[in-house]
Design a protein that fits this description.
Blueprint lengths: L4 E7 L4 E7 L2 E7 L3 E8 L3 E9 L4 E5 L2 E3 L6 H13 L1 E2 L2 E9 L5 E2 L1 E12 L11 E6 L3 H4 L6 H28 L1 H10 L24
């Protein structure tokens, strides 16, 4: 689908604005080069986030590490660059969780969300105008802290991560139960089975304090 007419009415450093005519309707469209966000999980099972000032909403928000794709840059390449620059995190095992339009009512921004597991500390290289505070949340407390998030991409990224963790756990349990079903039936005929829920011991973390690696 294409508009009947389109012309640029604003040419900015980061975004442009296009005025489009669709039959008898006019639409102002923000042109955006695309962006990335990263759910970064270290080997201690902590998710890394940043707190930064967002002038548009007059507040400091807790967000996933994220940024804009540079000209000609692939999303995965941009995600690895942004994670290194903002948090100093490198390495890890990467895969894309999802890609979506952030605000399709007026903006052509395509967001790619990646999961990076087992990342390692390196040296951060933030932009001159960035003031970032590093935050680490334990993976096992993410679900209870979602209400603290006011940023859409961060909510989407964390929910996608929690869903895939839940799916992986269910698949693993299903595989184990299926493979052991004959033995389980035999054991059940001899003795009563007791199920115990074990809570993993939590590691200490310093929320809201910049780690020494960043």
């Amino acid at each position: 689908m294409k508009p009947d007419e389109a012309r640029t009415v604003y040419d900015g450093k980061l975004i442009d604005v296009t005025l489009e005519r669709w039959s008898d309707r006019e639409r102002e469209i923000v042109e955006h080069p695309g962006a990335v966000a990263i759910v970064a999980v270290d080997r201690d099972q902590h998710v890394w986030l940043v707190r930064q000032l967002r002038e548009a909403v007059r507040a400091k928000l807790v967000e996933l590490p994220a940024g804009t794709c540079e000209h000609g840059e692939e999303p995965l390449q941009a995600a690895k660059r942004e994670l290194r620059e903002e948090c100093g995190l490198i390495g890890g095992v990467w895969r894309e969780l999802s890609a979506f339009w952030t605000t399709p009512g007026f903006c052509r921004e395509r967001m790619h969300v990646y999961l990076a597991e087992d990342v390692e500390p390196g040296e951060a290289e933030p932009e001159d105008d960035e003031e970032l505070e590093m935050i680490r949340w334990r993976v096992d407390e993410l679900e209870t802290r979602l209400e603290e998030i006011e940023d859409a991409k961060t909510l989407a990224g964390l929910l996608l991560y929690l869903r895939q963790r839940s799916g992986a756990s269910s698949y693993s349990m299903g595989t184990r139960c299926s493979s052991s079903r004959p033995q389980a039936r035999e054991a059940h005929s001899r003795t009563r089975t007791t199920y115990v829920r074990v809570r993993a011991s939590s590691r200490s973390t310093t929320s809201g304090v910049r780690p020494s690696c960043c």
